[in-house]
Amino acid sequence: MSTPSSPFTFDNVKRVSTTERIVENLVALIGQRSLQPGDKLPPERELCEIIGVSRPVLREALKALQVMNIIRIQQGAGAYVRSLEPQNIVEHLDIVFHLDISLYHDLYEARRVLEGSLARMAAARITQEELAALAENIRKAEEHTCDLEDFYQLDLDLHGIVLKAAGNRVMPVFMQSINKLVLLMRKRSNAKPHIRLNTIADHRMIYEALAARDAEAAGKAMEQHIANVEKAFLADAEDA
Hints:
The chain has about 240 residues and is mostly helical. Helices cover about 70% and strands about 5% of the residues. It folds into 2 domains: about 20-85, Winged helix-like DNA-binding domain superfamily/Winged helix DNA-binding domain (Arc Repressor Mutant, subunit A, Orthogonal Bundle), CATH 1.10.10.10; about 100-240, GntR ligand-binding domain-like (Four Helix Bundle (Hemerythrin (Met), subunit A), Up-down Bundle). The chain is built from 10 helices and 2 strands, in the order H-H-H-E-E-H-H-H-H-H-H-H. The protein has a two-stranded antiparallel sheet with strand order 1-2.
């Protein structure tokens, strides 16, 4: 029996057996712009046939998409795509990634601008105690390269020390917003051991520039570090 014709294209939808993979494939479909805000998804029966899953499994995936505000389910009428504005779904960064990969580039660009400026400010204001804290942080990171969670926290702490050392009372407000968006990105970019080693090397360059009170070198070292992290993250995303 042939599948009913539909204006929606599912050529790139893989046959999957888990809710997570179904969600990813449905979002990939939206990301291809086959579905636009206000469009209705195909009926459950048709989706089940095309994706190759049972209705209970499909419904779990649809519920997940509803929680993420990607779709709205109207009782008795079907499922419809909601607004795809990134700010409505930023808490689900994997979804944003499928919808618009350039958004991640924008986030890293924002990090380079903000954290580069913070490093430049910190070079003139950092205390000996804060420099010592940075050195200790790097030492601990070298000891925890095999422990992803510890390394992740140390990474956050180092950037927090630089933020505090910058001595600007407004910048933390901006960084708080940015950090909420990049939590997942940090975890993924630090996921591989060789990337963690590169991060330590970058952090050491930042520390040395700050210790030398060289504002321009500190800013450039931070900006290069963010660029390196972006490259690692995008490479990992392509391999996923």
